[in-house]
Amino acid sequence: MTTSAPPRHARAPELAVSTTALRKTYRTRKGRRVAVEGLDLRVPRGGVHGFLGPNGSGKTTTIRMLLGLIRPDSGTMTVFDQPVPEHLPAVVDRVGAIVEQPKFFPAFTARRNLELLAGGIGAPASRVDQVLAEVGLGERGGDRFRSYSLGMKQRLAIAGTLLKDPELLIFDEPTNGLDPAGIHEIRETMRGLADAGRTVLVSSHILNEVQQVADTVTIIGRGRLLAEGDVDEILARGGTEAVRVRVPDPATAARILLEAGFAPEPGPPGTVLVRAGAGRPALNAAEVTRTLAQREIYLAELVWQRPDLEEVFLSLTSEEHLGAGGPHVAPPAPLPPSAPRRSGGRS
Ligand SMILES: Nc1ncnc2c1ncn2[C@@H]1O[C@H](COP(=O)(O)OP(=O)(O)OP(=O)(O)O)[C@@H](O)[C@H]1O
């Protein structure tokens, strides 16, 4: 007897995490505060998934529900297709998480700290050097914890989550309090973990920071879904590309560009911001340059202005969207069948 597999395109995307209509309210002195409202979250297996939203938008609450630390009012959640919290014990070893800062002993070396942690959670001591290497601390494992930079301390915390060799890593705001160098270290570490085949679900209120490393994102505001899907696809939906050109006479340049069918607008002093204009499928910088050069206007500078996730967020939560009707819920974009893998970060 032969069994035929369903055609590949018919398969639903494999999800590491999903939630449906998730809702959580907190009881406060002023009554019930809605923290998460009807949230559908879909985190594909493999790659980095950014879970983004401003402070107080419900990210930590969602993560705590997924980890069984608090209970939702209603809705369903799965981790590796297992309903949680009911079946959390079946998947708990496949998940590593940093929700609060783990406590390490300052006077002990990083390696000793991890050995103690491994003993406590029943992970083999042989994993310690492997996980130190995986977060780029292989050479510094013998140094005392207190001599570590904040970025290294955070990488050590990530190493701790890897001791049980989990497939899914959940990091709640892992770059909080770090300087740009530390943020870069954590971004590179997350990229490396995803490139090695793990799934990284990372929350952040700094959208552009995660934009550089995430393959897919979910953007929430006031506990509700605003947008989800592939980063490039969301960026494409979020605004139009433009080039900023510096020219000796911006007003004349703008008039010439308008006549040629572009959509120019005044930029910062001495510049014109040029968009494709109706009837052009995309903006072509060479065409802008040629149009002006043909009229003997030569550019001193041309800079691409690409929309970023902060802008997308602001446009999704602009007054009209957050008016009486509450936040606009963007139609979910289809997720790729398997998350893309990429080496290196975005720029
Ligand atoms: N224990 C609690 N009791 C009452 N309200 C709470 C509690 N925890 C969170 N909230 C409220 O729920 C909402 C969502 O908070 P949550 O911490 O989940 O957001 P967040 O997106 O993680 O924000 P941040 O980035 O600041 O941590 C906020 O309005 C917050 O004040």
UniProtKB/TrEMBL annotation:
Upper taxonomic lineage: Bacteria, Bacillati, Actinomycetota, Actinomycetes, Propionibacteriales
Q: Does the keyword Nucleotide-binding apply?
A: yes
Molecular functions (GO terms) = ATP binding; ATP hydrolysis activity
Q: What would be one Pfam family of this protein?
A: ABC_tran
**Region feature Disordered, mapped onto this chain:** 322-347
Q: What is this protein called?
A: ABC-2 type transport system ATP-binding protein
Q: Which UniProt keywords apply?
A: ATP-binding, Nucleotide-binding, Transport
Which SUPFAM superfamilies has this protein been placed in?
A: P-loop containing nucleoside triphosphate hydrolases (SSF52540)
Source organism (scientific name): Microlunatus antarcticus
Per UniProt, the ranges with Pro residues bias are 329-339
Q: Where is the ABC transporter domain?
A: 17-247
Transport is among the record's keywords: yes
Family designation: Belongs to the ABC transporter superfamily.
Q: Which Gene3D superfamilies match?
A: P-loop containing nucleotide triphosphate hydrolases
